[in-house]
Write a sequence for this structure.
């Protein structure tokens, strides 16, 4: 070989791909015809183009190191339009732009995970602490996320020499064009693992069950999600873990119905208790309280207990507990009870009540008709 391509670029024979690229950029800035129009530099510019075309391609470089001439069938290089370097390399050389190519990292962030837990109404009202078990990917303890068997390590890919990509020169009407693609041997990582970890099969992570303590704040409701940062899936190659989301599912209560931060319940009392008044014990979230049913209470009336509901999730205070009263009319009377009611009706003048009628609720079309008629 008459030309020493390493000497042309001014690099060692064991130079890395990045060192070769830096040398080419430096020389291209100095010798390109658009920058240096001196005719004597054109031959020198062709030489660095040919040198870079050979040394930047792993296959051509290997052939050259073995004594072959990779450019013997390609016309020996040529001018700027026939050079074997890529357009992005020229842009890097003249405008100082960093190349976007290179090996991709084996370490990546893990995915987020989600788990649902059931809590009671009392736990939702006042908050609680729960221990949960989750099955997620964790870092492999055998290889510490490296993916290689103990005593071994990842090695530089001999096909792409750590670049993570391989180049190929093709001919077109513009001359020789160099294209790059991910290295098929290392899948673009730049390194290979000849002896994968037997525990994780080279993944750097395994699945395991963990126990976590979750603090559930007061005021949560069904559908509320609590974020635990960094408690999700560990990423490939022992990468950082994603987040874990705990979704709340509130179990229905036997007495109370939740509407926002308010609680509602219904108490059924007999007609006599509604007429005479009474006190009814109710087991609230704060303990037993006496509900005062005043004389003459009607069915459908409600009794509010302020501050007996759910704690507000954001901000202080609590909602209310609303007790709805339902008056029950007896449908079966014995002769003595019937006689007593007849006597009561006679005393109140209600033996033959005429009743009190009020207009029923109008439908939509009736209301529209009245509106057009000016009623």
């Amino acid at each position: 070989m008459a030309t020493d391509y390493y000497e042309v670029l001014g690099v060692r024979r064991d130079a890395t791909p990045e060192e070769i690229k830096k040398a080419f950029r430096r020389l291209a800035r100095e010798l390109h015809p658009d920058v240096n129009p001196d005719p004597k530099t054109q031959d020198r510019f062709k030489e660095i183009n040919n040198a870079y075309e050979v040394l930047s391609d792993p296959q051509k470089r290997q052939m050259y190191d073995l004594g072959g001439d990779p450019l013997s069938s390609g016309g020996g290089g040529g001018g700027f339009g026939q050079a074997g370097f890529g357009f992005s390399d020229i842009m890097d050389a003249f405008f100082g732009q960093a190349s976007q190519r290179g090996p991709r990292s084996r370490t990546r962030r893990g995915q987020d995970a989600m788990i649902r837990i059931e809590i009671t109404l009392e736990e939702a009202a006042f908050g609680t602490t729960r221990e949960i078990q989750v099955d997620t990917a964790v870092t492999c303890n055998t290889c510490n996320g490296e993916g290689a068997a103990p005593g071994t390590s990842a090695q530089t890919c001999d096909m792409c020499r750590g670049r993570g990509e391989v180049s190929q020169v093709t001919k077109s009407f513009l001359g020789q064009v160099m294209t790059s693609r991910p290295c098929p041997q290392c899948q673009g990582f730049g390194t290979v693992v000849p002896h994968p970890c037997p525990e994780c099969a080279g993944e750097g992570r395994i699945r395991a069950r963990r126990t976590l303590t979750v603090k559930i704040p007061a005021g949560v409701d069904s559908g509320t999600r609590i974020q635990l940062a960094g408690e999700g899936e560990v990423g490939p190659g022992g990468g950082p873990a994603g987040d874990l989301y705990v979704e709340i599912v509130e179990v229905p209560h036997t007495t109370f119905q939740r509407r926002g931060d308010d609680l509602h319940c219904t108490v059924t009392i007999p007609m006599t208790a509604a007429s005479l008044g009474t006190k009814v014990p109710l087991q609230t979230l704060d303990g037993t309280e006496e509900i005062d049913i005043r004389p003459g209470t009607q069915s459908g009336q409600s009794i509010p207990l302020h501050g007996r509901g759910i704690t507000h999730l954001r901000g202080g205070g609590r909602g209310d507990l609303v007790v709805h009263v339902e008056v029950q009319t007896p449908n079966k009377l014995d002769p003595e009870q019937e006689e007593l009611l007849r006597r009561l009706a006679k005393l109140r003048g209600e033996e033959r009540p005429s009743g009190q009628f009020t207009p029923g609720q109008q439908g939509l079309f009736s209301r529209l008709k009245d509106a057009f008629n000016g009623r």
